[in-house]
Amino acid sequence: MDEVSKAGCELCDSAGGDMLWHDDFCRVVLIADPEYPGFCRVILNQHVREMTDLETGARERLMRVVSAAETAVRRVMQPDKINLASFGNMVPHLHWHVIPRYANDRHFPNSIWGEPMRAGAARETPRAALTAALHELLAK
């Protein structure tokens, strides 16, 4: 397993977004992307590159948080679809993207990292409701 933190890793050196929930293992942050309100990341606190670098229990624990983040985003944002992604090509620190998608967003049905297909519809992120939903789901 990699070290606890790595100098120069942006997810070791910063929160990686607006903190919504955290514990000693991982955190859920809100990404400031006006095109994709409600876009969250679940970030492992330890510097690990791949899911298979984690022991089984740690993988399951991380996926419980990813699932809770998806549930909270679905409940609060009411998207047409959720995209879950874990790449790490640009930032090789284990993290999951939880992205609410709408049929009229800029890229739908394609990836948000692709070529835009249209102007997206404006939406707000009810941050307090998203935070409350995460805390409720992860308190269990």
Write a brief structural summary.
The chain is α+β, with helices and mostly antiparallel strands. Helices cover 27% and strands 19% of the residues.
Would you kindly provide a written description of the structure presented here, covering whatever features stand out?
Helix content is 27%, strand content 19%. With 140 residues, it is α+β, with helices and mostly antiparallel strands. The protein has a five-stranded antiparallel sheet, with helices on one face. Strand 1 (18-22) and strand 2 (26-30) form a beta hairpin. Helix 2 (56-77) packs antiparallel against helix 3 (127-138). The longest helix is centred in the middle third of the chain and has 22 residues, at 56-77. The mean pLDDT is 93.
What keyword list fits this structure?
5-stranded antiparallel β-sheet, alpha+beta, 140 residues, single chain, 5 strands, 3 helices, 27% helix
Low-confidence stretches: none
Order of secondary-structure elements = HEEEHEEH
The share of residues in helices is 25-40%
* Beta-strand content bin: 15-25%
Please describe the biggest sheet, giving its number of strands, its sense, and whether it closes into a barrel: 5 strands, antiparallel
Helix/strand structural class: alpha+beta
